[in-house]
Amino acid sequence: MAYKSLTERVPRTLICRLEEDKMARKELNHKVSFFSKAIATLLTFQVFAPAAGCPPKENIFPQCTCTTGIVISCNIKTVEDIPVWAFRGYSISRLELTMSQTANKFTFGRYFFMGLTIKFIELKSFSLATLDLMKDFEGLEKSLTGLSVITSSIDNVTSTELQQLNKEFSLFLTLTMEGSMCLLNDDINYIGIPNIKTFTCTGNSGIKKADKAPNYMLSDLSKLEKVDLGGVGFTGIERNVFPSDASKLKIINLRDNQLTKLEVHLFERMPALREVYLQGNKLTTIEKNIFQPVWNQLTHLYVNCNSVVCNCDVAWILYNPKKPANFIPPTCQGSSSTASVSKKFIGLILTDIELEDLCPTWIHFV
Questions:
Q1: b/e map of 300-329 (b: 16 or more CB within 10 Å)?
Q2: Whether the Cβ atoms of residue 241 and residue 254 lie closer than 8 Å to each other
Q3: In terms of DSSP H, where are the helices of the chain?
């Protein structure tokens, strides 16, 4: 007796059901696969997305405290006291690290901040063997907006040669170094962080040679808006220190240095410049041709606390009717050769006729 084929022995309705079940299982497997991937994605997001709020107090106390806005302040004795592991998974607005005692000099190293999300870092009273911008802050390329180093001892500040790494810090806009070694090393010509808007280098701590500001130090920073080089001890500064394209530069602060004169081209090609601070230097004269490119656009000009000889050479600024809205004049100082002229200037408000009589070469500054 010949055997019948499977399709002949099994009712057709059952075969249809089997085929339908096969298709259903296939569709079910597809749905399960889809939802499995979706759940995995959500779990991944939950794990790696920055958490809201502060890290648990028990994880950061007693070295650190956390306040509203996720501002974490840590008072530490050594770098090992920083509970970096507890910061992972949190979006930190500001991390303030203060060294409470003199410690052996150390270096952060390339991977110290890896895996963290921090917008702003402040280092205070640190003792660093070297600070490498931006290599020491690898891992913060997508979050770091600024760095402040205050009253810290730094043997050497360098700028990484990894240009691609520098460019990845696209949000990094503010670099402040107060009372700390600034980027004034002879072997550094520029900072190399293209988007910086505010650069502050103040104080004389750790600076071994400051005859003049290093040439081309800020020349590539075309987005720079504010420069503060107060109290560093410069005896001179040239135009090439500032961005070659200074179309956005608004504020230059050179207060409390050792400047005896200004370079003739110092303020050229600065169409946005509004504020200039020169108080506390050693200027003996203020030449009008230096300020002529920006005079009509300045809103702030401070030249007080300079022992300027108030003679006909500075009459243009003392008696100019078109002064900046916020203007503090130089401190007049006489000299043996110009004593008679200086005495007439000091404490007097002269008319144009009197001024022309005193200074035959006087002309209005236009």
A1: ebbbebbebbbbebbbbbbbbeeebeeeeb
A2: no
A3: 6-9, 12-48, 57-60, 84-87, 163-168, 288-291, 315-318, 339-345, 352-358
- Asked if residue 7 belongs to a domain, the reply is no
pTM: predicted TM-score of the whole model, two decimal places: 0.80
In a domain, 36, yes or no: no
Q: Any idea what DSSP says for residue 40?
A: H
* Residue ranges making up the domain that contains 346: 59-358
Residue 143: give its domain's CATH number: 3.80.10.10
Of 70, 118, 73, 117, nearest to 99 (Cα)? 73
75 found inside a domain? yes
- Residue 51 inside a domain? The answer is no
Distance of CA 342 to the CA centre of its chain: 43
Give residue 236's region: left, alpha or beta (phi > 0; psi -120 to 50): beta
The secondary structure of 187-224 as a DSSP string is T------TT--EEEEES-TT-S--SSPPTTTTTT-TT-
Q: Return per-residue pLDDT of the chain as tens, 366 residues.
A: 444 444 444 454 444 455 445 555 655 555 545 555 444 444 444 444 567 799 999 999 999 999 999 999 999 988 889 999 999 999 999 999 999 876 678 888 778 999 999 999 999 999 888 888 888 999 999 999 999 999 888 887 877 777 777 788 999 999 999 887 776 555 555 567 889 999 999 886 455 556 788 888 888 889 999 999 999 888 999 999 999 999 999 999 999 999 999 999 999 999 999 999 999 999 999 999 999 999 999 999 999 999 888 888 888 888 888 899 999 998 877 544 444 445 555 555 556 656 667 776 655 554
Cα–Cα nearest to 269, from 233, 231, 242, 302: 242
Our count of domains for the chain comes to 1
Cα dist. 305→58, 252, 302 in Å?
53, 17, 9
